[in-house]
Amino acid sequence: MRISINLASQPYQDEGRFYRQWGLALVAMLLLTAFLLTMAVRHRINSQKDWVAARDAEAKLAALHREEAEAQRILAEPQNRGTRDRSQFLNAAILRKSFSWTRLMEDMEKVMPAGLRVVSIAPVLDQHNRFVLKVQVQGERRESAIELLRNMEKSQHFRSAELVDETRNEARGGEGGVKSDIITSYSPAEALEGGE
C-alpha cells in the first residue's frame, strides 16, 4: 500500500493563476472608476455651465422687472395718466379687433358633441389680455355639456373649462332640455401656430 505524504512546510498554491484573476478584476475596477470619475467631472462642468446660464437669465429677468417697474412708475405720474389710459384703451381695442370669429367657430366645431347647440358666446379680455369665453349651450341631456367640457380639456385652444351654471327648461314650444353656462380660456389657433 502506497501513502502519499507531503513533507513541504507550505502547501502548493498556484499564485500565478490567483494574480491573473485578481489582476484582471483590479484592472476592470480601475477602468470603471476612471469612467465614473470622467462622467462625474463632465456632469459637474455641464451643471456649472447651466448654473451660470440660469444666473444670467435671472439677472436679465431682474433687470427687465426693474425696467418695467420704472416704466409703470413713470406712467403712474399724474401728467402721464392720460397717455397710459389711452394706450391701454387702444391696445385692448386692437386686441379685440384681432379676435377671429371664424377661427373660434372652427375651433368650437371640433369640440362640439352631437345634440348640443350654442346659444351665445361672449369673448372678454381678462387682466392679462387673454380671451375668456362665456359660452351658453343647450341640449336635451346634461351629459352633452359634460362631453363638451371634456372635449375642451383635450383641445389645445381651450383651457380651464368650467361649468358655472345649468338650468333645466320645460318643453314649451320645442325649447326643452338643459341650458349650461361654461367659462373657458381661449387661445386662438393662429396665436399657437405663431408661437411654434
What Rg is obtained from the alpha carbons, in whole angstroms? 36 Å
* Number of H- or I-type helical stretches: 5
CATH topology of the largest domain: Alpha-Beta Plaits
**Quantity of strands, as a count:** 4
Strand order of the largest sheet: 1-2-4-3
- The count of domains is 2
CATH architecture title of the largest domain: 2-Layer Sandwich
Oligomeric state as shown: single chain
Which stretches are low in confidence, meaning pLDDT under 50 for 5 or more residues running?
191-196
Between the first and last Cα atoms, what is the distance in angstroms? 95 Å
Helix content: 55-70%
Main β sheet profile? 4 strands, antiparallel
Describe the global form: elongated
CATH class of the largest domain, please?
Answer: Alpha Beta
Structural class: alpha+beta
Average pLDDT score: 83
Sketch the topology as an H/E string, one letter per element.
HHHEEHEEH
* Proportion of residues in extended strands: 15-25%
Provide keyphrases for this structure.
196 residues, alpha+beta, Alpha-Beta Plaits, four-stranded antiparallel β-sheet, 5 helices, 4 strands, 21% strand, elongated, disordered C terminus
Layout of helices and strands:
Layout: H1 15-76, H2 81-97, H3 101-111, E1 116-125, E2 131-139, H4 142-154, E3 158-169, E4 177-186, H5 189-195
Antiparallel strand pairs: 1-2, 2-4, 3-4
State the gist of this model:
The protein is α+β, with helices and mostly antiparallel strands and 196 residues long. It has helices at residues 15-76, 81-97, 101-111, 142-154, 189-195; strands at residues 116-125, 131-139, 158-169, 177-186.
